[in-house]
Write the C-alpha cells for this entry.
Amino acid sequence: MIFAFLINTTEKGLLLQILLGMNETVIRVYDRVDNVNFIFEFIEKSFSNKLIKSNSIYLNYTHDEHYKRLFLLKWFYQMYSKNSNTDAPLLKQHLHNRVKKPIRIEIIKQQCYHYPIFIHILNNSTIKFKIVPKNIELYSFLTAKFRANLINSVESMHMFDVLCDNYESKQELSEIIKHDTLESLKVKFIYNATQMREFLATNDDVEIVIKGAYDVLESSPDESLKVIKKRYKKLLKKFHPDNVFCEDKSQVELYTQKFQLIQNAYTLIREAS
C-alpha cells in the first residue's frame, strides 16, 4: 500500500480505512458506521460488473459506470472528511485519479464494540443523554422510554434532555443504566458515579448524604457558607496530592481520593444551600 487514510473515534477504534494500493483501492468500513447497508444497496442497484460476498464487494472498471464510480469514491471521501473533521485534498485527488482501478470494499465486523452513551447531570432534576457516534435505534429506544419526561431533543438525533424530578423517573433511570445491552446493541453508559448517586438519591437519602458532606468538611449546618468555604479551602490545601508527590503511590492515591471527596462535599453543600 502506498497511502492509508484512517478515521479514529473516541473509543480508539476505526470507522473507516481508505488504502490506496498499487493495483486497487481498498476501502474498509467498520460495521458500526451509520447506514452501512446503503453501500450494499447502492452498488447492488447501480453496478453490473461486481462481485458481492457477505462482507465484501469487488468492482471492476467499465466505461459505462465511470461516473457512478466517481460518485461512490466521492461519497467515501465525504464520509472521511465529515468524520475526521479534516479536509484532505490529497486523498480527494488520489481517489479521482484512481477511478479506473479496481475497488474492493470490506465490511469489518466489530461485535465487541460498545456504543458509548454519555449522561450529563445538568441540575438536580435534569439530565442530558448524548449518543456518540449517533445511533438512531438507541436514540429511538431511549426517547420512547423517557417520552413522558422528555424536555427537548436535537435534529441530529443524538442528544436529548430528560426531566427526572420524582421517584418513578429516577427509578426508571436507575434501571436503564444497569443495562449493557439495549435493542440488541452493546452499550456503555458513561457518567460521574458520585454525581449520579446523589442525583438518584431519595429525599431521605439526600439528608444522609448532606450530613456526610458536612462531616467531611468538619462543619455543621449551623455555619454560614462563607465559614464552610474557608474550611473547605484549608482542607483542600492540606490534602492536595502534591503534598505527598514524593511518597508511596498508595499515599498519593489516598490523598487524591480525599481531595476529590472534599470537592464533592463542598459542591453538594453549596448547591443545597
